[in-house]
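retry 2 of 3: previous attempt timed out while embedding zinc ion. Reduced batch size to 1 and resubmitted. Inputs unchanged:
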Amino acid sequence: MSKLVIKNGRVVDPAQNLDRILDIGIEDGIVRELAADLNTTGAKIFDATGLVVAPGFIDMHVHLREPGFEHAETIESGARAAAAGGFTSICCMPNTKPVNDNATVTSYIVDRARRHAIVNVYPIGAITKGSAGEELAAFASMKQAGIVAISDDGKPVMNARVVRRAMEFACALDIPLIEHCEDLHLSAGGDMHEGVESTRLGLRGIPRSSEDVMVARDILLTEVTGVRYHVAHISSHHAVDMVAFAKSRGLRVTSEATPHHFVLADSDMLPYDGNFKMKPPLRERLDVKAVTQGLISGAIDAVATDHAPHAGDEKMQEFERCPFGIIGLETAIGLSLEQLYHPGHVSLLHFVKLFTTNPAGILSLKAGTLQPGAPADITIFSLDRAWTYDVSQSPSKSSNTPFHGRPFKGGPVATVVAGQIVWSL
Ligand SMILES: [Zn+2]
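retry 2 succeeded.
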């Protein structure tokens, strides 16, 4: 029997509307008790004085690159980066090689994760075979094998008839459909957001409308099909408005935002630096404000990183040739504190909800709370520790980030999965 007591932390659990200094008693991987001054006989002790103790953070959008691109990331290395970022659960997108579009690949990922990952890994299955946008993937058997949602992330489903049918099946199976919203005809050839900055830099633009038209299309189809629909990495102010509108009509529409989309605008880019190239692209200051506002108002439900590792040389090419995406697991808490909590935009309960209760609800995960009986997945973080991000120390196999060298106030301190401290400072 293994016992752990986390002493004296500020326990913040939105599921219980709890924000109080308490001890947490953990036995055999399960939360047993929350109380002041717990008996610690025979237990390992973690002193959390001055720290926030929250349910394990969930990142519902990461790319682990295994199988197929293990030089950039593996399930093992991505899970270690997640733990170092304060995440106890991550959901991996299906754009591996082969694509996770059938139960064999799903089972492979689940099995590799069980053996090599220090955090929980939940696979997301493809919407279409090979994520080619034509034939539907095998949702039912993938669900049995362990997927928690479907998405062709990275490759939007361009054919509305195909996405409508996928929504009908997803609704019948009660799994959410997550869309990477991008009309490829509108975004074709673009490398950054279309606007004054792209003109100034002489780069081809990706218009905001490429995101907006697909969000609009999908919301209309959500009304027809009744599916639980989720917008990945929302970045346009119009899209935020449309999701709020859909929610006001009672549709089961949710959305997530990445820290880079609510911290950086296109005008913050270092010119031609591939570490600022991602999809959707960094947009304008008004979009950054709208995404931040969406996280405050509830139009946006979750913070997700879209952790997208690319090995060293891939990002060292000319901007036009660089692949899209940045890593993000280790900087998510720091950036979110900086933009949401420290300026006083959200309470600590609301902040924690964006990483726990909300993503757990969207994906129907048995996670995201510290109620007695729940798995002891716990994120311990500081609100004021001064630190600087050094990507050369990252457990990730990739280092493509625009945040190397950025100073932070507050960030992850320890990560507990199933009652074991899997990472600490
Ligand atoms: Zn995407």
